[in-house]
Amino acid sequence: MTAPVYAKIAVIGCGLIGSSVIHAARASGAVGEVAVADASEAARARIVELGFADRVTADPAEAVRDADLVVFAVPVMAMGEAARAAAPGMKPGATVTDVGSVKAAVGEALAAALPESCFIIPGHPIAGTEQSGPDAGFAELFQNRWVILTPQARDDEPYADALQRLSDFWSALGSNVELMDDRHHDLVLAVTSHLPHLIAYNIVGTAADLEGVTRGEVMKYSAGGFRDFTRIAASDPTMWRDVFLSNKDAVLEVLGRFTEDLQALSRAIRWGEGDKLFELFSRTREIRRGIIAAGQESAEPNFGRDHRAPADPDTNAQQS
Amino acid sequence: MTAPVYAKIAVIGCGLIGSSVIHAARASGAVGEVAVADASEAARARIVELGFADRVTADPAEAVRDADLVVFAVPVMAMGEAARAAAPGMKPGATVTDVGSVKAAVGEALAAALPESCFIIPGHPIAGTEQSGPDAGFAELFQNRWVILTPQARDDEPYADALQRLSDFWSALGSNVELMDDRHHDLVLAVTSHLPHLIAYNIVGTAADLEGVTRGEVMKYSAGGFRDFTRIAASDPTMWRDVFLSNKDAVLEVLGRFTEDLQALSRAIRWGEGDKLFELFSRTREIRRGIIAAGQESAEPNFGRDHRAPADPDTNAQQS
């Protein structure tokens, strides 16, 4: 094991992502000491029990004292307040990042709250599960996943050094690092993450409220496809409320496109235009193959959840 | 192993479901001899190689000769033609079922095509993967999954006996059997299966066509949620085209409700109504818990696709 990338880090907010950062940093030896601040008394008690932090406190300013890297891992609309609370304790020259799913709004909130001596580099690991809280974290979460950093528009050498070091940190945790403009990040993630969550929440809500079909039936026969959507619709409500409110413009833009396409599909069904349906359904298959080839998805049928099915999708013969 | 439920079965159309029926029937000892008819020469050659059928032919009438149970497992709009082709060979008093995802239209097509001496009991196993073809099948596919049978409106004793025997067959394959009115089936499945597929196909299409975000970016950052949708959007295009065209009314009805709910959600985002979002996002979590409790879904985070995360969702502490 090489020398730690950071002698001390502070993690502010210790849910699924915060605790996974700590597990991964410890497992990789990327960090020396770890301090945690969390606003929830229950979470703090649990973190102490789990024993993965050197210090646990309710006060962000106390947690960040002497930290070389501060990672804000609270819901995106709580970032500003957490940063303001941490500011008085911040070590001059510390690197500050976050793990929020929206980058432009969070970057502004951090910049407004923190002293100029900090190197603020907003970030977003594209990884997660539907679970929440300090128990949900695990060291392998970031393995082979992308972390997008959206650095500020400054080209001084100390900032470039801080950026390099933060990239090294994420690489040590197993991630691939990509730099991106924050607005572009917010559009890309509106497509690959925010819209999927919105659609999943919506369809689960629709199914739950439908007259004529009971909730019991919806659950019982969910293996026909519905159950897939319930996974991301089980994600943390606070986190996702904040995402939609903080990335409103990009989400509404891609939602508009989705709705337009859905109307066309609805019309094709109504008028019995089988060719149009077939054409779309054939194209979408290719996208999954690309994702599997890119190492971002399991090739096993049903995500491997059955642990029973054959593993090679390329052996499929033609459907009769 | 007890005596086979049927001495001989014929499976017409040997894709994922047809081949899984054969594997499961053989593994459970529910069947003696198995004949297969498939219209695809490539599929037939592969079935012979795989060696799971006693007889393989292109001609449904030949396959069904002497069969006590005939299982039609072709796309739903091909059922009528397959049944017409099989009719001349059909044994008097044979039981006929199918595995199609739509029941009213298929029930009518089978009844119109087959001799009156057959006991027609349309059926639908709520099980599958995103894969297709005779290589995709496996014996455990129906374990602990529901099979819905939609018997005809007749109450004679021979029909009741045939129904009991078909139920025993599916039970032997590991399934739970439920009887249902065919129209109700088509509405329930429109919610739990057809709408989810339509939405998944649509979002993958939208993402693929969006200007401003490349397909490479969509694939690269798909672990944010999008990748989940690509699984069912990789399902067989012919099968799904037929489902939407054959269950048009129910699909358009639930799609109308979905769209209405989505407009309300869109409006809540536009006007910053965080409470409405939070309320929905909290409710949807419960539905997944119900599905897991009903044994229809893996409790592991990320469907267990990572094979790394902790398995107990009840240990989640509160999000900070």
In summary, what is this structure?
The structure is a homodimer of 320-residue chains. Chain A is α/β, with parallel strands linked by helices and 320 residues long. In chain A, 48% of the residues lie in helices and 12% in strands.
Walk me through the structure.
The first copy, chain A, is of the alpha/beta class and 320 residues long. The first copy, chain A, has helices spanning 16-28, 41-50, 60-63, 79-86, 104-113, 157-172, 182-209, 215-220, 226-232, 237-246, 248-270, 274-293, and strands at residues 6-12, 31-37, 55-57, 69-72, 95-98, 119-120, 123-125, 146-149, 176-179. A 6-stranded parallel β-sheet of chain A has the order 3-2-1-4-5-6, with helices on both faces. Chain A has a 3-stranded mixed β-sheet with strand order 7-8-9, with helices on one face. In chain A, α7 (182-209) packs across α9 (226-232). The N and C termini of chain A lie far apart (55 Å). The model of chain A is unreliable at 308-320 (pLDDT under 50). Chains A and B meet through α2, α7, α8, α9 and α10 of A and α2, α7, α8, α9 and α10 of B.
List the helices and strands and how they pair.
Two copies of one chain form a homodimer.
Chain A: E1 6-12, H1 16-28, E2 31-37, H2 41-50, E3 55-57, H3 60-63, E4 69-72, H4 79-86, E5 95-98, H5 104-113, E6 119-120, E7 123-125, E8 146-149, H6 157-172, E9 176-179, H7 182-209, H8 215-220, H9 226-232, H10 237-246, H11 248-270, H12 274-293
Parallel strand pairs in A: 1-2, 1-4, 2-3, 4-5, 5-6, 8-9
Antiparallel strand pairs in A: 7-8
Helix pairs in contact in A: 4-5, 7-9, 7-11
